[in-house]
Write a structure and sequence with these properties.
The complex is a heterotrimer of chains A (196), B (222) and C (185). Chain A is built from six helices and five strands, in the order H-H-H-H-H-E-E-E-E-H-E. Chain A is mainly alpha-helical and 196 residues long. Chain A has two domains: 91 residues, Methane Monooxygenase Hydroxylase, Chain G, domain 1, CATH 1.20.58.1030; 47 residues, Ribosomal Protein L9, domain 1. Helices cover 50% and strands 11% of the residues of chain B. Chain B has a three-stranded antiparallel beta sheet. The longest helix of chain B has 40 residues. Chain B is flat. Chain C has 185 residues and is α+β, with helices and mostly antiparallel strands. In chain C, helix 2 packs parallel to helix 4, helix 3 packs parallel to helix 5 and helix 4 packs antiparallel against helix 5. The longest helix of chain C is centred in the last third of the chain and has 28 residues. Chain C is elongated and about 70 Å long. Classes of the chains: A mainly alpha (196), B mainly alpha (222), C alpha+beta (185). At the A-B interface, helix 2, helix 3 and helix 5 of A face helix 2, helix 3 and helix 4 of B. Strand 4 of chain B pairs antiparallel with strand 6 of chain C, so a sheet runs across the interface. Chain B: Keywords: Chromosome, DNA replication, Nucleus. Chain B: Belongs to the GINS4/SLD5 family. Chain B: InterPro entries: GINS_A (IPR021151), GINS_bundle-like_dom_sf (IPR036224), GINS_Sld5 (IPR008591), SLD5_C (IPR031633), Sld5_GINS_A (IPR038749).
Chain lengths: 196, 222, 185
């Protein structure tokens, strides 16, 4: 059947969860393109025959093939575009440097699209407001002005909190700090959240 | 030090005629944020609000540099700055997301805009949208379209990328009373009818019915 | 909308605190605050009240409506009426949650209040489900939602709007004319 390969590309996307990216299916695309080439060539020769020999019975077949061509074009474009949307989302999730495991799944042109997207976004953010611009990939969640109790698991040295206070993070010392300032240090294993 | 902040509440230069206090400016930003979050289409650009808010933030940050560290006052200002910056970023993110989602339609609308009509895109957004379109078109061409038969080497982006659905339902609160809003029937058996929107009342209806009222500020999406 | 964003909006609500420090009037971008004097009440937004409370710099005065008797009355009213009754604060749920989680020692009968507010919430959300259900099945084009709070709307937003939009698309595709032939790709 015509268009089967094209539909397979679409099915492949449906199997993926949101935000996932599978390996770029270069082979699948090439097979669709090959089918398109064959359909087009058959149509060209039938069109010539229909014209020169007045074979109007060929017209329905020609129309059918053309519909298949359009459907194939649509499947390929849909496959490629959907992947771009996923790649775009990755910029917001991972920042401007993608993990190698994801880059590995992208074709060279997708990487190029991604780099251009990064550039456009950076340019946009730099041009916001004053000279410094505004990084809108930050502040994804509403700020929480709450403090938590933390214990220091290792010596970390001086640490400045947002209001400018400098505290000494010494092993086993306990502190009452803004949550948003500690989150990273907790992940790094410098601090632990004391749950009273 | 007490005076470091006292000028923050006036606009740094009293140049504009529409005297808006910083508090009103923040309220306007929050309205724009919620409208943008809930409206299915891109709303009119509010560049002047964005610029003024950025100015306020920069000004306040500047003042904070001069303040004694560890001061309780500084931490209160810091928290307020964080809250405002979140709303501003979230607002701009909502817009950028819509621009990415509907770029061919948004650029088309911008192209057909009559001179003097307000723009839907800020200059930065316009530049971004154009680049996004060019980048995407050139990508599709390189990877696939140029390998297709000659009559199939272009894709009409306006047809290919879905349009915003203006018939979506939205929740709204009324700021200024409106009379005789026509509600279109949902089925052939129903008839259209008119409703009045009382000040302060809340409704669920199709966006297309009240789109101009959102734009004018008479109703607020919630 | 993420619930944390509704909570963020609720944190703008003003509450009264009694601070234990003194500070001159402050000029915030969003308006003036203070002055703060030890032992004297002052109105501040909830985000600030919670922060000061956590740093043990103030005591929060519970909002007037956060009172067992008043809430019992509201609960009875809510159970009696079929429609949504007016609620004392557009962010009653978030305020209750935030104040009870972070300042419960300043709220008399905190546990009873928690239960009462949850009862009121449950009653209202059950009504909301019923009306959403009838709105969809009756193919209504407009509904008046007075007295509903943002958090309540938010619990049903995604589900209700997605259902309505899907049904609309289904109906549109039943129409004879080939509506919306956009090539989605």
């Amino acid at each position: 059947m015509f268009c089967e390969k094209g539909v397979e590309l679409i099915k492949e996307l449906h199997l993926l969860g949101d935000g996932q990216l599978s390996a770029f299916n270069e082979d699948g695309i090439r097979q669709v393109l090959d089918e398109m080439k064959a359909l087009y060539e058959q149509n060209q020769s039938d069109v010539n025959e229909a014209k020169s020999e007045g074979k109007s019975e060929l017209i329905p077949t020609i129309k059918f093939r053309h519909t298949c061509l359009l459907r194939n074009q649509r499947c390929v474009a849909a496959y490629l575009y959907d992947r771009l949307l996923r790649i775009r989302a990755l910029r917001w999730e991972y920042g401007s440097v993608l993990p190698a495991s994801i880059r590995f799944h992208m074709c060279a042109e997708e990487l190029e699209w991604f780099n251009q997207y990064k550039k456009s976004l950076a340019m946009y953010m730099r041009s916001l407001g004053g000279e410094e611009g505004l990084d809108i990939t930050q502040d994804m969640k509403p700020p929480k002005s709450l403090y938590i109790e933390v214990r220091c698991l290792k010596d970390h040295g001086e640490f400045e909190i947002d209001d400018g206070t400098i505290i000494l993070l010494k092993k086993n010392s306990q502190h009452f700090l803004p949550r948003w300032k500690c989150e990273q240090l907790i992940r790094q294993g410098v601090l632990e959240h004391v749950i009273s | 030090m007490a005076d470091a902040f006292s000028e923050a509440s006036d606009r740094s230069e009293d140049d504009s005629q529409d005297v808006m206090t910083p508090a009103e400016l923040i309220a306007k930003l929050e309205q724009a944020w919620l409208n943008e979050k809930f409206s299915p289409e891109l709303m009119e650009s509010k560049s002047e609000i964005v610029e003024c808010v950025m100015e306020q933030l920069t000004h306040m940050e500047g003042n904070l540099q001069r303040v004694r560290k560890g001061d309780i006052k500084a931490s209160i200002h810091r928290m307020e700055i964080d809250r405002i910056r979140f709303v501003l970023s979230s607002y701009l993110r909502s817009r950028l997301r819509k621009i990415e989602k509907y770029f061919p339609h948004i650029l088309e609308k911008e192209k057909s805009r009559a001179e003097g009509d307000p723009s839907f895109l800020s200059p930065e957004e316009f530049a971004f949208a154009k680049e996004y379109l060019a980048n995407t078109e050139s990508y599709l061409k390189t990877v696939a379209l140029r390998h297709m038969p000659p009559n199939l080497q272009t894709v009409d982006m306006l047809k290919a990328v879905p349009k915003p659905c203006l018939d979506s339902f939205v929740f709204l609160r009324v700021h200024e009373r409106q009379e005789n809003i026509l509600v279109e029937p949902e089925t052939d058996e129903q008839r259209e009818y008119a409703i009045d929107l009382e000040e302060g009342s809340q409704h669920l209806m199709r966006y297309s019915t009240i789109a101009p009222l959102v734009a004018s500020g008479a109703v607020q999406l919630i | 909308m993420d619930p944390s964003e509704v909570e963020f909006l609720a944190e703008k609500e003003m509450v009264t605190i009694i601070s234990n420090f003194s500070l001159d009037k402050m000029y915030l971008i969003g308006g003036d605050l203070g002055p703060f004097n030890p032992g004297l009440p002052v109105n501040v937004p909830l985000w600030l009240a919670l922060n000061l409370k956590q740093r043990q710099k103030c005591r929060i005065v519970p909002p007037e409506w956060m009172d067992v008797e008043k809430l019992e009355e509201i609960r009875e009213q809510e159970r009696k009426e079929e429609t949504f009754t007016p609620i004392p604060n557009p962010h009653y749920m978030e305020l209750t949650k935030l104040l009870l989680n972070h300042a419960s020692d300043n709220i008399p009968k905190a546990d009873e209040i928690r239960t009462l507010v949850k009862d009121i919430w449950d009653t209202r959300v059950a009504k909301l489900r019923l009306s959403a259900d009838s709105f969809i099945s009756q193919l209504e084009a407009h509904a008046k939602l007075d007295n509903l709070t943002l958090m309540e709307i938010n619990t049903t937003r995604t589900f209700l709007l997605d259902s309505l939009n899907s049904m609309y698309k289904l109906r549109a595709s039943l129409q004879p004319q080939p509506a919306a032939k956009g090539h989605h790709y």
